[in-house]
Design brief:
Elements (H helix, E strand, L loop, with lengths): L1 H16 L28 E5 L6 H16 L3 E4 L11 H9 L4 E4 L8 H9 L3 E5 L10 E6 L1 H15 L4 E7 L5 H17 L3 E8 L4 H14 L3 E6 L2 H12 L8 E4 L3 H9 L5 E4 L2 H16 L10 E3 L5 E3 L5 E5 L2 E4 L9
Parallel strand pairs: 1-2, 1-3, 3-4, 4-5, 5-13, 6-7, 6-8, 8-9
Antiparallel strand pairs: 10-14, 11-12
Bound molecules: alpha-L-rhamnopyranose.
The site of alpha-L-rhamnopyranose has 13 residues, from helix 8.
Length: 346
């Protein structure tokens, strides 16, 4: 935990120092593969970030981290993305990046399969594909930058809700979109962990707010109406937890129904301060974007191929090693509460 906190605090200084201007449109100056460098790599350090959707502070922060890294190593950064986090909404952006012959595409996938053909066409054309945050099937990308071990992400959320409701009662899950690889993996593991560790907790329903603020707000209201004995909501999405907390903060459920899950400190601060939320978890999305950008660089330059055991330097985060199935792990999830939330600004 101290390790995660150090990294989070460490990033804050970098973020303040860096001038972070996100372009909002694709870069076209990356050339078509560069002139090549030693070892079969390329010098085309034009890197495009494609989050699940735009307008989500979580992805604003991960893209800021990506841009910080790309600026550090002298590449060209761009961010593009759809307005809505639907399964195939990212396809046209992938195709455009392929036509532009970017060096790497860094993607958080809305669906494990729907964008695979487009990604593999990009790879056939020489684009390195790095997923981060939410993976595709492994055969559609070169690397996946995982924010934290999925079991750990599931465990921290269940332990938080169990602690907040006294270890017993009805709990619901307010997720992102129904096909999101990351949330679905965490939800399956949360259900397993509840079944083995907390026999007195029942997960009564999972609903989907589509990582849309209003939909998540409305789904919270509906959950509370249809489950009058609900003791808590776990929302494993930064959009969902903030919307759920906003709903509960001005309702009679405040102080009676616990809200936890994965949130950004800046979005959750007011609900921690007004007592709606006790504690929640996350990692640093800026570090995630920063690491994904450095991994892209290593792939582009031919330093790594994504094989297990490959190592690469990720700037101020240090050296990372590629694990099984082309996965690189950022670190541990971190728990935020009233005592520490003031230390964080993202
Ligand atoms: C939302 C997105 C993202 C997820 C975080 C926790 O911002 O769904 O994919 O990792 O929540």
């Amino acid at each position: 935990m101290t390790f995660a906190r150090k990294k989070i605090a460490g990033f804050a200084a970098v973020a303040v120092a860096a001038a972070l201007v996100l372009t909002g449109c694709a870069d076209t100056s990356g050339g078509s593969g560069g002139s090549g460098s030693e070892g079969g790599g390329s010098d085309n350090l034009s890197i495009t970030f494609l989050p699940k959707n735009l307008g989500n502070p979580y992805f604003d922060t991960s893209s800021e981290g990506g841009k910080t890294a790309v600026d550090e190593f002298g590449g060209t950064f761009a961010e593009v993305g759809p307005a809505e986090a639907t399964p195939d909404a990212q396809v046209s952006y992938i195709n455009t990046a392929t036509q532009q012959a970017v060096g790497a595409l860094v993607v958080s996938a809305n669906d494990p399969k729907a964008i695979c053909d487009a990604l593999n066409e990009a790879r056939d054309a020489g684009v390195k594909v790095v997923t981060f945050d939410s993976d595709t099937n492994p055969e559609c990308r070169d690397l996946f930058i995982n924010q934290a071990d999925s079991e750990g992400i599931a465990k921290v959320q269940v332990d938080l809700i169990a602690d907040q409701i006294g270890g017993a009662g009805e709990v619901a899950i307010l997720s992102a979109s129904a096909n999101a690889t990351n949330q679905n993996a965490w939800i399956d593991l949360m259900k397993e962990y509840v079944a083995t560790e907390y026999p007195d907790i029942t997960i009564v329903e999972t609903v989907y707010g589509d990582d849309d603020d209003q939909t998540s707000f409305d789904k919270t209201a509906a959950l509370l109406q249809s489950h009058p004995n609900l003791k808590g909501i776990i929302s494993p999405t930064t959009v969902g937890i903030a919307a759920a907390a906003r709903y509960v903060s001005t309702s009679d459920y405040k102080g009676k129904v616990a809200i936890t899950g994965l949130g950004t400190p800046n979005q959750m601060r007011e609900y921690v301060e007004d007592g709606t939320v006790t504690a929640f978890a996350l990692w640093n999305p800026a570090d995630l974007g920063y690491l994904a950008a450095f991994a892209s660089k290593a792939l582009i330059e031919g330093d790594i191929t994504g094989e297990e055991g490959d190592t690469f330097e990720a700037g101020e985060l240090g050296e990372y090693t590629v694990g099984a199935d082309g996965v690189v792990l950022l670190g541990d999830p971190f728990e935020f509460n009233a005592d520490n939330i003031g230390d964080f600004d993202f």
